[in-house]
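Bench log. Compound arrived from synthesis this morning; before running ITC I wanted a structural hypothesis for how beta-D-glucopyranose sits in the protein. Inputs:
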Amino acid sequence: MPAGSVQNGAEVAERVDTLIGRMTVAEKAGQLTQYFYFGSRPGDVFPGQAAAVEAALGRGEVGSLLLVTDPAEVNRLQRLAVAGSRHGIPVVFGFDVIHGLRTIFPVPIAMAASWDPEAIEQGQAVAAREARAAGIGWAFAPMVDIARDPRWGRIVESAGEDPYLASAVAAAQVRGFQGDGPGSPGRVIAGPKHFAGYGAALGGRDYDEVNLSDSELWNVYLPPFEAAVTAGAGNIMTAYMDLNGIPATGNHWLLTDVLRATWGFDGFVVSDAHAVHNLRTHGFAADLTDAGARAVQAGVDMEMTLGDAAYAHLPEAVAAGLVDEKVLDASVRRVLTAKARMGLLDDPYVDEENARTVLADPAHRAAARTAAQRTAVLLRNQGGLLPLVNPGSIAVIGPLADSRRDTLGPWVFDFDLGETVTVLDGIRNRAGVAVEVGYAPGIRPAHRAFPSMFDMFEGSAPADPPAFDDAAELARAVSLAQASDVAVVVLGEWQNMSGEAASRSSLELPGGQLGLLQAVVATGTPVVLLVMNGRPLDLRWAARNVPAILDIWYPGTQGGTAAADLLFGDVAPGGKLPFSWPRTVGQVPMIYSHTASHDPGHQDRRYWDEASTPLFPFGHGLSYGRFEYRDLILDRHHIQPGQTVIASVTVTNTAERAGDEVAQLYIRQRHGSASRPVRELKGFQRVTLGAGESRTLTFPLGPGALRYWNAAAQDWVIDTTTIEVFAGTDSTAGLTTSFTIGA
Ligand code: BGC
């Protein structure tokens, strides 16, 4: 059987059952255990753990390892498992391949902002190819948690607030990682996470409890998981926190009733790191034996552990009659089936020479550049300041403009800083010798009040520049701006301020950045603000005083090149916001798909001290084209439940240059057996239109779009009602028509 080929189902089942028949309970428990392997990486929280893991490999008591990315190391450890143990069962190496392995793509929230499932699929296909070449068979991605509270740092890993967009993004990522399914050559197993509800942490505080209503769960938080399962995801990762009082990692309803019985998931489930062990910490399990027994019975096939694994107690639990060995067998069967499908049982080793070639592939860098172009969101462009027209001189300002590490964003480990292009590099390369490009940081980097484990692990906290004279540096930035035709100011958050364990109590620009921006704007030189971020920030001042604002997110390896492509108009921006951009932290959570509730006429006046509308609405984003919508037409105005309406709309680029637009379709149910949101996204298409070009786009509205989970009925319903349809450039789209359902 050649490496990576998908084996025949019956043949796989027979092989797997033969192995299970020969395994001891301890070997089974080991097969259900995934260890962190720090090796020489810093951060080994259990000293001596590497030696313990290597001994367990030799006993055939390890199912999987994470954190190993060096192909030679993969082969060395794999030999311990294959050549050194009784049954020679290989381990599957898993890793957080979130937005690239060596070639770093824009962060996931940015990819979602592309509203371009094809680009998203391609990005994860590149990541999969690099990972697989390095010996990694499984990505702990995509993160498909809905994120509605930007205080939560992991919004950067999400697709934002909307279940329809997030489902499309989830499915595209699964296709990118897995191709035709686990085992396709050059692909890896996708592991959508964190099942479920993790994004709704109380107060936006990472790891805190989550309480979600039945309606929110089924209509908002679960759909992206279902989409990922339908797309064939081979794995699902549990979540850390309690969901409505039950820890997600011990939650039989979630992991078995919903995931397997309702959705038919047939892959394997892994816990989040140490989450089985922590069932005890939660005050749920009595001890580690109880934790292991309850997790495996709830449906957690594999425990991800830092050491002191609860699953090491499974033999005890079986002996005490707390778990039937058949439950272990079912989990082992799922894990071994995944390994067999990946071709690992026949070809466990990795070709180190090939890894070097694949990781250096220039086509991957080209794909990352295109992705970074497509993810940028043009938030504002007063007077058509962008694209820049023949500037003689450009002042590039702000410490983030020249920071390679921050350009990559969080959740990357195997990047190559040497090849990372910053905004400053990108502008210099593109401008050539004819344009004078000056640089001044203006201020020193800002710091987190409390460092995270990632800062300790990676040493990624920004260093204070030696002998930095604050007053002199600010003055230097201001005079540089004064002497230049245009100032490109790059502001945002340092990458370690976003991601896991990176929640914030404020959305303000950290450090002295707002002061720097105000000082540069005061010079009168036109300012373009580039925002580098993983969450919306308080840009109220900028939205009033800075003519052009382009959100480039953390754009990855080729980020600076793509930023220059956009600034100079070599390509047009076309990304759209995947969340409602709040004015201030006091408004969060803020969603476009709220219900009308009481007094909708004053929706914008819910607070007395600030408008209660977003600074930029969900779906907002400009381009260098200008788009008009007309002729929103339905193929019929009355249907029965179960039938489909086709909507079409014509979009015209009325500008004199080409541009990108994401046409969006929303619905609103007028009345029914529950109050439904004032707007719900139900279709989108990204198009490039030349000057004066028109295109008619069609969007089906079928039963999947019209049904919703009704908490009173405890079921999916399609009401007899009137559905209003809206089409346009963002969630405030005005062009409308309607149809009726039923009688
Ligand atoms: C995160 C997961 C991640 C895992 C392994 C956990 O802390 O919540 O998303 O996959 O670590 O790195």
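What the model suggests: Residues 1-6 have pLDDT under 50 and may be disordered. The radius of gyration is 26 Å.
ITC booked for Thursday regardless.
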